[in-house]
Amino acid sequence: MTQANMTTFSSMGDFLKERMVTTDIVCPTHGCNLVSAFDREPICMECIKIEKDKLEREMIERASAEYYKKNTYNWLGMHSIFLDETLKHATFDSYQATDDETELNKQLALNIARRYYKGANNNTIFTGKAGTGKSHLSMAMLQVVNEHSDPYRKCLFVSLDELMRRIKDSFNNKQSYYTEQRMIDLLTEADLLVLDDLGAETGAVTTDRTATDFTTRTLYAIINGRMNKPTIITTNLNSKDMAKMYDSKLISRMFRGAEGHVIKFEKTNDKRRTIEF
Ligand SMILES: Nc1ncnc2c1ncn2[C@@H]1O[C@H](COP(=O)(O)OP(=O)(O)OP(=O)(O)O)[C@@H](O)[C@H]1O
Ligand SMILES: [Mg+2]
Ligand SMILES: [Zn+2]
């Protein structure tokens, strides 16, 4: 529109009004007359308003669904802490049952995972020899729960050893993201948590009282914060070893609801041992 013809109208509103013609056609829904602007097809202003409100609502719903998914479903990929990165993609499909024990344990793990996504809140313990697939199966359980939970659940895999290392590192590095409190909050907030390789975090520091106290304190805060939420623990320790390493209150909380949910590897071969010498 040129300056010249703008001046022939007192305002933009007047200009638009001039171009809008009320027709004799009536909206069957609203009973009002349709309006034609700029000689275009007549429209009902009420219908347009309703359509605009609907689009706006849908946009808000989509945005909030995306935010919700990011804050639940995406946790597993975003916040998990791995020592062994290959575990990121561990699934039931990629777990090969090579004998009776692996076959049984794979089935047990899958059954428990199914109960988790339906809301069970007992803890599960994987125990036994190294390289038998404890971490692999626990991650596979998280993947299943993450995919099938409705509503979504916050699933999290955390290598305890690596977690403790990062927290300790944060004591001397003020820029670190992995502060003790932030990590405790993260692990407490997860709806389903894998604490991977319990016991490994104490291995190098058994003679260091402070570090052991620190480990106990951190574990305590996590386990206490998860009294009503399920935790899957993987470990090479048996219950006797655990009793030597951790205090009894902590152990009894880690074993909460774990009766019938202890998955043992006693016979399976170490899948990492491919080199003979
Ligand atoms: N049955 C299996 N089928 C396919 N891959 C397997 C199987 N068992 C183990 N693996 C693979 O072997 C590697 C070691 O397994 P995993 O880390 O789960 O062992 P682990 O029992 O947790 O050992 P550790 O006690 O040392 O932590 C992983 O890369 C895992 O994906
Ligand atoms: Mg492991
Ligand atoms: Zn209408």
From TrEMBL:
Record's signal peptide: none
Protein keywords: ATP-binding, Nucleotide-binding
UniProt record, GO biological process: DNA replication
Cross-referenced Pfam families: IstB_IS21
Molecular function (Gene Ontology), one example: ATP binding
InterPro entries: AAA+_ATPase, IstB_ATP-bd, P-loop_NTPase
Occurrences of domain AAA+ ATPase (ranges): 120-265
Record-given protein name: ATP-binding protein
